[in-house]
Structures are given as structure tokens and as C-alpha cells.
Amino acid sequence: MESDPTADPELLRAHLGGDVQAFARLYDRYDQPSFVFIRRMLGPGQTAAAEDLHQDTWLAVARTAASFDAAKAPFRAWLFTIARNKVWDHFRRQKIVPLAVDPADAAMSIPDPGPSPFEQLASRELGETLIAAVEALPIEQRGAFVMFAQAGLSLEEIAQATGVTVETAKSRLRYARSKLRQALADERAAHV
Amino acid sequence: MSDPNDFETDPIDQAYRQAEAAQGDEAARAARRARLLAAMAQAVPASPAAPVLPPRGRKAGAGWLAGGWLLAAGVAGLSVIVSGRLYPPALPPPRQPPATTRISASTAPPVSSSAPTAAPSKPEAPPALTPLTARPPVAPVAAPPTLRLTPQPQAFPAGPPRAAIPPPMVMPAAPEPVASPPPPPPPPPPPPSAEAPLVSESIVTAERRAHPPSPRNDAGIMAAPKPLDLGAKLRDAATRGHVTEVEALLNQGAPIDEPDSQGDTALMRAVRAGHADVAATLRRHGADLDRQNHAGESARDFAAKRGDAALKSVLGIDD
């Protein structure tokens, strides 16, 4: 994703100057992670809506590029802020309210089974199980996990994109991972 | 302060990346890229250096469509005449339908040789050329998806190493796994209830949001209803700028958009008082930015009036 050495803000500036190629390069860097993020936030069976929101997100990037301030946040944090807002707007239009907090969080003490046999994850079934488990995470944990694992955002960037502290972002990520491990362990146990 | 890298070695991340990569669909990705550029040519004012789409593609949506359909009708008529000569009346008629369907599929305004093959590579993608807001009214005419793909090759420069837009005909049999439900009519957004517990756990309807269910005890019996002033407490906390209290009340199920007697919601109050952090928290939990009070004003209006850049930024309001 980062083989192109030109910095994101430079590309964005070039886009403002009318360089279509620059915008294309920027898009190519983040197209996949931003799409996966939106798609997972919407959940299963919403691929078409994810396509729309993804397009809206990038149109917003193109339109509001002048308002981007690299001193405030890195480009990808800005991008995911926009993507996230698009997702919430979509939920609102559809009258869907994702539960922001998992009631089990407070009392959650799932033992960490450790990095067991993830090598075996080559199997498609397990991969699908994992994706389904990601989509079943509470919305904020899901967002934090996808931004971190798929898009490679740092905890600081996730915190910026979601408007929380780094500790909160970290805690969401930790919970998400713990639940995913548990889901995989359950899946494996079911097949043993 | 935490080290942003201290999570990086977790195998579950890698496993997830692999799982997503296995689901990757290059054809869909290329189509997405192409659609975006076509949409940009319409929605974003073209910059001087940008190769611009043919002028009629810009604003003349309806006229362009109409022209396309006229062209389609003309081609269809011609094909009927030609096929009538090629196949005298004695021939069995069943050949006609395929001929017409094929023409109508490929005569969407910009007819191009790549269009017919691009469509099957992404059967489920709806026509996404125009922004969401513009789509519904156009829906009945249902311009085929091929319509969007034509202008893109020149509008969007081929991405650096990626092999431009892969010839869609190479991967006709690789639709997205999730996309399987093709023919059933547009399903209502999320499955409202039961079957899939994982999904239903994460979403509730707006109705339930306005009237949160009473909690149940371990035996599943409805507990005594909570005092119904959670909404009022939420609005008060928002007015005072108490983020943690707001968060706690939301976690207790306070109805986020419940208005007071003036129609003001917690978000409106937070915005009016200039509490950007509270506004951000409410918005993150799904508070409605455009709901209006009795005076017809929304939180968005209040933010615009204040002209507070930080506030607008956390609310995602574009200038």
C-alpha cells in the first residue's frame, strides 16, 4: 500500500491543483481498506449500500480536499472520519441504530486463549467465520478493529477518527480481539 | 501514553487480513474505481487539468438518458427489421427475445464494447454513478449499470502498478460471495429480527431507540420500568457539557433524540452551548444532526450559526 513515496497531503494538494493522476494514486492507496471498513460497518448483505457510501466518501474527499489540514490529523484519519460519518448518516437514514456499547463489555472476562492455530486459518470456512464474527462485534469495536487490522491505522489515528481517547480506542481493540478469538475457538470446538 | 505499535503482532489481525484478502474481488474493485471517476466527473467541478467527460455527461442527466433511450429504441427497431428479413415469418420466433434483450442491455447511452462484459462481473452493484440523494427519483427508469462504465478509462488514469481495469470478462464467474441473493426484490435494509442473532444484536430500530425496552432480569421477566426521565437527564448533561455523564446515560439506554417541550434534543443543546466534545459523543452514538425543533431549527443549523470550526469539524459539517 505504501510503495508510492509521495505523501498523502502532497497528493491531495496536487488534486486541488487539478492533477487527476494524484487523486487516483491516493485512491489506490486507500480504496480497499476504506471499502472494507464501510462494508464491515454496515454488516452482511449490504454490499451495494457499501459501494454507494464508499463512493460518497471519496466524492466528499475530492470536494472538501481544501479543508484538510495535515497539521491536525493524518490523511487516513481524516478519510476514515469521513467514511465513518457516512456510515452513521446511512444508519440514520435507514432508521437503524447500532448499539454503541456491548452490554457484556462491563463484565467481560473472557480468558485469552492465546495465539493458537491461526496458521490453519487458510481454510475459507474459518475465514468466513472470522469475518462474520467481525461483523457481529459491537459497532465501535468493529470499527476500531477494522481500522487497525485492515487499514493499518495507529491507535492515535483511530482515536482521532472516532473522537475518543487513545485508551478508549485501545480498549475497544482489545475487546474486539478477545471476542474474535473466542468466536474462533468456539468454531474450532464445534468442529472437533 | 500508549505505544501505538504494541498491538501490532496479534495474529488475529493477520488472520483477518487474510480472510478479507480471500474475499477480494479485483473486478469489483476496478468497477468501483471506474464508477467513482465517472461520478467525480459529474459531481466534482472539473479542474483545469482534469480530462473532462463529454459535456453532456455533466448536468444533462435526464436529457442524456432520454437520448439514450431514443437511441436504444432506434436500434431495437432496426434490429427487428433486420431480423425480420433474416428470419422470414416461417421461422420459429423464439430467437427474438434474446436479440432484443441484448440490444437493450447494450444500448444504454454510451454504447461500448466493454460494457456488456463489465456488467456480469458485478451483478449486484446497483447503478452508483450519482450520489445517493440523486438516485431514488431515477430508479423507475433503471438505467443499466453498463451506463456508468464507459467514460471512465480516460477520466481515471490507470492506477500505478495495478493492471488498469482488468478485463471483466476474465472473471465472470467470481461474484462476491456476499452478493448471492440476486433476484429477490430489494430486501428491507437489515433483517429486522431474529434469525441471525449476530446481526440483530448490533442493530435496533428507531422505534426501539425512542422507546428503549425495559430491562429483563435473569429469568427473562420484565423488570420494573426505569424512571422515564433518562432523556431529560441526557439533555441536562448535554447542556452542562458533561461527557462522561452523557456517555453513561446513553449506555443506560437514554433515548438519544428525545426532544424536550420545545423540540430540542440533547445534540441541539450541546451544540448551542458549544460543547464540541459532548456533541461528538452524541453524534458518535447516532444522534440526528438534522432533526428539527418546533422552530424548525436543527443541530446543524445551530452549529452553522455558531461558526465554531471545532464544533463543525466534530460534527462532520462541510463548509
Please outline what is shown here.
The complex is a heterodimer of chains A (192) and B (319). With 192 residues, chain A is an all-alpha fold.
Quick one: how many beta strands of chain B? 1
Low-confidence stretches of chain A: 101-115
Q: How many helices of chain A does DSSP assign? A: 8
CATH topology of the largest domain in chain A: Rna Polymerase Sigma Factor, Chain: A
Low-confidence stretches of chain B: 1-5, 46-66, 88-155, 159-227
Q: What would the keywords be for this entry?
A:
heterodimer, A: about 190 residues, mainly alpha, Rna Polymerase Sigma Factor, Chain: A, Arc Repressor Mutant, subunit A, 2 domains, 8 helices, about 65% helix, globular, B: about 325 residues, Serine Threonine Protein Phosphatase 5, Tetratricopeptide repeat, 17 helices, about 50% helix, about 0% strand
Layout of secondary structure:
The complex is a heterodimer of chains A (192) and B (319).
Chain A: H1 8-16, H2 20-42, H3 47-63, H4 75-93, E1 96-98, H5 124-135, H6 139-149, H7 155-162, H8 166-191
Helix pairs in contact in A: 1-2, 2-3, 2-4, 2-6, 3-4, 4-7, 5-8, 6-8, 7-8
Chain B: H1 11-23, H2 26-43, H3 56-59, H4 61-86, H5 96-106, H6 115-121, H7 135-138, H8 146-149, H9 152-155, H10 197-202, E1 203-205, H11 206-210, H12 230-240, H13 243-251, H14 266-273, H15 276-284, H16 299-306, H17 309-315
Helix pairs in contact in B: 4-5, 12-13, 12-14, 13-15, 14-15, 14-16, 15-17
